[in-house]
Design a protein that fits this description.
Two copies of one chain form a homodimer.
Chain A: H1 26-42, E1 50-52, E2 59-63, E3 66-76, H2 88-105, E4 109-119, H3 125-142, E5 145-153, E6 158-167, E7 188-192, H4 197-206, H5 214-220, H6 226-235, E8 239-242, H7 247-258, E9 261-265, H8 273-278, H9 283-289, E10 296-300, H10 302-306, E11 312-319, E12 326-329
Parallel strand pairs in A: 4-5, 9-12
Antiparallel strand pairs in A: 1-2, 2-3, 3-6, 4-6, 7-10, 7-11, 8-10, 9-11
Helix pairs in contact in A: 2-3, 2-6, 4-5
């Protein structure tokens, strides 16, 4: 399961500290702390058939000769999208696409979706129809069947989608899964597409840019590279993660779970011309910490990744590192400090809870 | 997928009409109308492997020789539970139990759960720990493994759980599923346990009754009869639904999808002594329209249901009925009118959108 830390939560005005009340709040331990507590509370009784549980992009378990995948993600109004600024049709697309991204990050094929819609009763029906339309567009694009739907009343809009899928198995029946804990020293880090466009698009959306602006499109209509992910899994890429919270924070999860560090060369990062033109000073920071790119990071031996060119760009490598951090370095190998390395949207300052 | 119409939404104060704004709101067409629109918007491209899509307790599809089941349900603060009154540990239990109920209603075995927690940042950590504890208790009770977790920030608490499971297949590979559309004229209607206790318990909870009051327990800790459901599916019971929105409304879904009517004998309804003692005048109405019982209704030939005694009580039968309604009748066969037959929590008056 991906831990959905909205990387640009600060942009939505949710970074002020909660009122002091003399107790330990979830904002103090952050969402990663909460996920760990959940894993502990329910950890007993883990069945033998479970291959990957809490803490990866998706859960995986064996079912006879097949390997099932399941993931879920929620978009909450005012936390994950801008009320009144995000077109409903794009919201529908994105609610499904972020889940497709999780299945892709495991190397799997998304097949079925369950959709839970929380709505205030005064929501206009044409808006809901537009949301369904966007959902249907994404479902057709990625070959996903919406098999179930639920509607509940709530004070604000929230869309929760669960996607079920399958991973391939090799000739000996071993699952071809890309896991966060499978990076090794010397493995190369590669990424699909370009980074930072989505975060830049959110900024432009807030500034009133139209929905057809290319950067705004990148924000509203993420297109997870499912075909590349499937090829990567078939080629034997052992480790991947999707870029949802910002490259450095997401790579930080790989570092934490693989017990290693990551070195990313700033000069190697793929940045679009639109991003460089729109935010020349901040392009690098947006690419490293902006989040919501829904591109994929692959971590594998160099020769394996060569076969994925030109769809991927090699940006760094895994190293020994007791701190298990992802570091951005310049041409001379010096660490580049950025203002923020991803956001943890439950913490009062929006800073991550220590994994990056 | 069960359509989660909180049968006692009115009790939470959510029945006032929305402000008039000169357009069609979701409160005008109701949640069942919305689910139908979703089914239409995404209906194209239904894969051959899909056995049951939108509109039943859970989705079902073929995977090689197996039949997968998936369902999801959400509990929203102030809509599905009382803020400050519902103990967190019970909330955790119930969030999973209502999904186990959906899988049971299909005759399947629940196996894996994904948990999405939407929390305000100032939620106290011990409260979340208690929620996880209740979730873990329910998971152990029903043999479900929590395989994924997600935490998002939101203005109010909401817990969405998706449960994945499997249905049995018979010797010829046909799935042993209990479907809403499989009732036939002359089939007998039977129900597990007793009805109305949960709705009575909610009332007592609001009146300040302690969490260990038997009726309050029934409300806070529903115990879906999974073992009985599994036996029913093995015996070949073709049709079932869980009692979430109130017996008559839920039977109404069976009527609608099977193209029939249902006749329920008031005198045959199983009512607990606690319910009769606490609300002698309203026991019948609570049993028929209260909801959240999470018992199961089985619809099958009488001889099939006989084998499930004493775990089920026979309460009526399916009949021809152009109106496709579930009717409550007295000893002389006259229809008994009740104040409300289930609630549709998106409609301003809380009344169902026409299926009962």
């Amino acid at each position: 399961m991906r831990i959905y830390a909205e990387s640009i939560a600060a942009a939505y005005g949710h970074t002020g500290p909660p009122p002091y009340n003399g107790r330990v709040d979830v904002s103090d331990i952050g969402e990663f702390g909460l996920i760990e507590r959940l894993a502990k509370a329910v950890g007993a009784g883990r069945p033998e058939s479970l291959i990957v549980g809490i803490g990866d992009d998706a859960a995986a378990w064996r079912l006879n000769d097949a390997v099932m995948l399941a993931t879920t993600d929620t978009l909450v109004e005012g936390v994950h999208f801008l009320p009144g600024r995000t077109p409903w049709v794009d919201l529908g697309w994105k609610a499904l696409a972020v889940n497709v991204s999780d299945i892709a990050a495991m190397g799997g094929l998304p097949q079925y979706a369950l959709v839970t819609l929380a709505l205030p009763p005064q929501t206009a029906v044409p808006d809901v129809d537009a949301l369904y339309e966007g959902l249907g567009q994404c479902a057709r694009e990625y070959g996903v069947a919406v098999a179930g739907g639920d509607v509940v009343r709530a004070p604000q809009i929230a869309i929760t989608v669960a996607v079920l899928g399958q991973a391939e198995v090799d000739g000996e029946g071993s699952p071809l899964l890309m896991r966060r804990d499978a990076a090794r020293v010397g493995y190369v880090i590669a990424v699909t597409g370009t980074l930072g466009d989505s975060a830049a698009g959110l900024r432009r959306l807030k500034d009133g840019a139209p929905a057809d602006d290319p950067l705004v499109r990148a924000h509203l209509r993420p297109r997870p590279p499912l075909a590349a992910a499937r090829r990567a899994a078939e080629l034997g890429v052992p480790c991947a993660i999707d870029v949802s919270d910002g490259l450095l924070q997401d790579l930080g999860h790989v570092c934490e779970m693989s017990g290693l560090g990551a070195v990313v060369r700033a000069a190697a990062l793929p940045l679009s011309g639109e991003l460089r033109d729109a935010y020349p000073e901040e392009a690098l920071a947006l690419a490293c910490t902006g989040g919501e790119d829904y591109e994929l990071v692959f971590v594998a031996p160099r020769e394996t990744l060569e076969a994925l060119r030109p769809e991927v760009t090699m940006i760094g490598e895994m190293v020994e590192d007791g701190e298990r951090r992802a570091r951005l370095v310049d041409a001379s190998g010096e660490e580049v400090r950025l203002p923020a390395a991803g956001w943890d949207h439950l913490r009062p300052d929006g800073r991550p809870s220590g994994r990056t």
